[in-house]
Design brief:
The structure is a single chain. By secondary structure, the chain is mainly α. The chain has 2 domains: 282 residues, Fido-like domain (Fic-like fold, Orthogonal Bundle), CATH 1.10.3290.10; 98 residues, Arc Repressor Mutant, subunit A (Orthogonal Bundle), CATH 1.10.10. The protein is 56% helix and 2% strand. It has a two-stranded antiparallel ribbon. Helix 12 runs antiparallel to helix 13.
């Protein structure tokens, strides 16, 4: 942590530069690679399978964003909350409600982006904060000092965040207006990761709310990346796995300018660029990891391993389920009769097997005659998507 005195910021020029101006060619090339790989991932399998993955990623985002705040709940408790099954332990139930609010807020904000909202704007982060905290009862939105967090309300008093003292509340409108001038305008497609990275750091620097700034910033960043990621990979997962470094890098980018070669703004351009490089690296790791998991031959092998394991431990599951399950992954929703035929079993045996697959959560269907769909149940992730969400395989808290 830096030992420089706390500076007071009252004018927007004091948090310049808002974008790095040097060393951009290599960074753009890396960003372009992330974008291209992400677009290929979205074309890898059937859209319905990707929709199932998005639901899993939303749960992961909730878990990891709250874990960064030191307030995570176990993935199985998040799954219970989605079924409206809340713990009788008050602290666990509160964390379940926070997780559920995050999932619902993220879904609503994604819809707003799809409808044309500009994610990297002060209006959007105010909406993000409001979407999250308006879904919580008052008792669930208290600061550690017992102050009630008002959904979407800019802070009205001064705060300090470690060695950083954000702009006073009366100066927030000017800083937020400057944020909008730089980040909310159109940018080149290849620059969008860099812009999202810089905006994440500078919005955290402004610290516009009395509490909930980290969660709101990550919701905003998720939605800024939504047109690129399609919700198929999680930057929050990458940040949570390097939580201490995440906070250190954010803090380092608050540093004042270090000499004449460090840009022309009040803050360090070199540190801002380093933050952007680190953030792009997080995105590279996450999209590359997910691409490897969705390699078709690898997924076929993992589905076969899952079914072999289940068949060895559960007489209701048979090895013949592997082929039609892989078909679901590739081709999307499939008529029950077609699924049963692909098992190569007799009609009655195949029908019983499908019922057992639905009962044990390996496939899903909306009704007795509706097509069956591929899903990613938590208790199968160790086989289907190993290391993606390892907390789901751990014992509950």
């Amino acid at each position: 942590m830096r030992n420089t005195p706390i500076a007071r910021y009252t004018q927007p020029h004091q948090f310049e530069p808002l974008l790095p101006q040097t060393g951009l060619d290599a960074l753009r090339e890396r960003s372009r690679g992330v974008i291209e790989q992400s677009l290929r991932l979205s074309a890898a399998v059937h859209p319905d399978t990707l929709a199932s993955l998005r639901e899993l990623v939303r749960e992961m985002n909730s878990h990891y964003s709250n874990r960064i705040e030191g307030q995570s709940t176990h993935p199985h408790n998040i799954g219970r909350a989605l079924r409206r099954d809340f713990s009788d332990k008050p602290d666990v139930a509160r964390l379940q409600r926070v997780a559920l609010a995050h999932i619902d807020a993220e879904r609503a904000l994604e819809s707003a982006v799809d409808s044309g909202a500009t994610a990297l704007s002060s209006t959007f982060i105010q909406q993000a904060h409001g979407e999250l905290y308006s879904r919580l009862i008052e008792a669930d939105r208290l600061t550690t000092e017992g102050e009630v967090i008002q959904p979407g309300q800019w802070r009205t008093r001064q705060v300090a965040v470690g060695r950083h003292e954000p702009p006073p509340s009366e100066a927030l409108p000017a800083f937020l207006a400057r944020f909008d001038q730089v980040y909310a305008r159109p940018h080149l497609f290849e620059d969008q990761l860099i812009v999202a990275a810089a905006a994440h750091q500078r919005m955290a620097w402004i610290h516009p709310f009395i509490d909930g700034n980290g969660r709101a910033c990550r919701l905003q960043t998720h939605c800024a990346l939504w047109p690129l990621s399609g919700g198929l990979w999680s930057v929050s997962r990458g940040l949570a796995r390097r939580r201490d470094e995440y906070y250190e890098r954010l803090d380092a980018a608050d540093a004042p300018r270090q000499g004449d070669l460090d840009g022309r703004g009040n803050l360090s351009e070199e540190e801002l660029r380093r933050w952007c490089e680190w953030f792009v690296g997080i995105c590279e790791d996450q999209v590359s990891f997910m691409t490897r998991l969705f390699h078709l031959d690898g997924m076929k092998t993992r589905i076969q391993a899952l079914i072999s394991f289940r068949a060895a431990h559960d007489k209701r599951i048979r090895p013949e389920a592997a082929l039609p399950l892989y078909h679901l992954f590739l081709a999307g929703p499939t008529a029950r009769g077609e699924f049963q035929q692909m098992t190569g079993l007799g009609e009655r045996t195949a029908r019983t097997l499908l019922s057992n697959l639905i009962e044990t959560g390996l496939v899903t269907s909306t009704g007795h005659v509706a097509p069956v769909r591929f899903v990613f149940p938590l208790d199968a992730l160790l086989f289907l998507l190993p290391e993606l969400y390892p907390e789901a395989a751990s014992r509950e808290d």
